[in-house]
Design brief:
The termini are far apart. The protein is elongated. It has 18 helices and no strands.
């Protein structure tokens, strides 16, 4: 799998200077939005020529939220023809409101051609809302976005927020990209393995993917504690007590404190009172006070479940 960050597509129509951007007066924006709204109500697709698209993109900067929504819905109805202009606006517009709205509008279109620009927006735009909206659009595109999201995880320049957004995007893609996530779960990079394991839940629950189950079990033995910690957390989210509890119990003795905490919390979520005695036994051996607190929490909650 290729984990390199690929450059964004160069759009011939790109305008590098903000002075070239179309500006709409408040009255012009209102009139245009009203006409577009009527077209949408009648089931008509707005005009998709370059001039019409540029005016709708300019409308994404209007201060009135309802008007911005009309322009976004209209651009979404236009579809792929609007993607180049939206990508340019997302990457280069001086108005952050336009950049945010352009990224969100790309979510409505789900065009794979936008992926390079969405990736650049995630990595380069200083605004966290633009970054998050770009990931949302990537996640909606689905399996084709996986490589780009994985790029972010191993890019040394990625911030923790960008890494977190990319991990969320992978989780959202979930069962749409089973093969890509299975490969990522075996990556040489611990951050990639961690994100891939976190995203396996849909494959296991929706597809009953036996390979994904095996990958999750193997992750419990991973040499990196962050991978083991993620695997123990996921077992609690799957709500499969018969399968999960026997796998989690040994993790109560893991060498890493966070893994032990996650194992206890996941056992608590599985709501199986039969593990209370094991938790008490491990509590007697535990030396870390923060882990002891979590063990006691799990024991108390499970005891209440048993008495309900």
């Amino acid at each position: 799998m290729d984990y390199r960050v690929h450059p964004p597509v160069s759009h011939p129509s790109a305008q590098p200077n903000s002075s070239d951007q179309i500006q709409l007066s408040g009255e012009e924006a209102a009139q245009l939005a009203e006409g577009l709204k009527q077209q949408l109500r009648q089931g008509e697709i707005p005009a998709g020529d370059s001039d019409a698209i540029e005016k709708m993109v300019a409308g994404l900067g209007d201060k009135r939220g309802l008007l911005r929504l009309t322009f976004a819905e209209s651009l979404g109805a236009v579809g792929s023809a609007a993607v180049p202009s939206l990508c340019i606006a997302m990457r280069r517009h001086e108005n952050v409101t336009v950049r945010r709205a352009a990224a969100k509008t790309l979510t409505l279109i789900n065009d794979v051609k936008a992926l390079p620009d969405l990736l650049e927006a995630l990595l380069e735009d200083p605004d966290p809302v633009v970054q998050g909206s770009a990931v949302g659009a990537m996640a909606c595109i689905g399996a084709a976005s996986v490589d780009g999201l994985l790029d972010v995880l191993i890019n040394p320049k990625s911030s923790q927020m960008q890494i977190g957004l990319a991990s969320w995007g992978l989780s959202f893609v979930g069962a749409k990209a089973p093969e890509a996530l299975r490969k990522a779960a075996c990556s040489e990079h611990a951050q990639v393995r961690t994100a891939a394991i976190a995203a396996l839940g849909d494959q296991i629950q929706q597809l009953d993917d036996l390979d994904a189950r095996e990958l999750l079990q193997n992750a419990l033995k991973d040499p990196e504690e962050e991978v083991r910690a993620e695997a123990t957390t996921l077992l609690g989210k799957l709500h499969d007590t018969n399968w999960g509890a026997p796998l989690l119990l040994p993790m109560l003795r893991d060498q890493d404190a966070q893994v032990r905490k996650n194992a206890a919390l996941s056992l608590m979520k599985l709501r199986d009172p039969q593990v209370i005695s094991r938790l008490r036994t491990e509590l007697e051996q535990e030396q870390d006070s923060s882990v002891m607190t979590i063990f006691n929490l799990a024991i108390n909650q499970l005891s209440r479940d048993e008495n309900d």
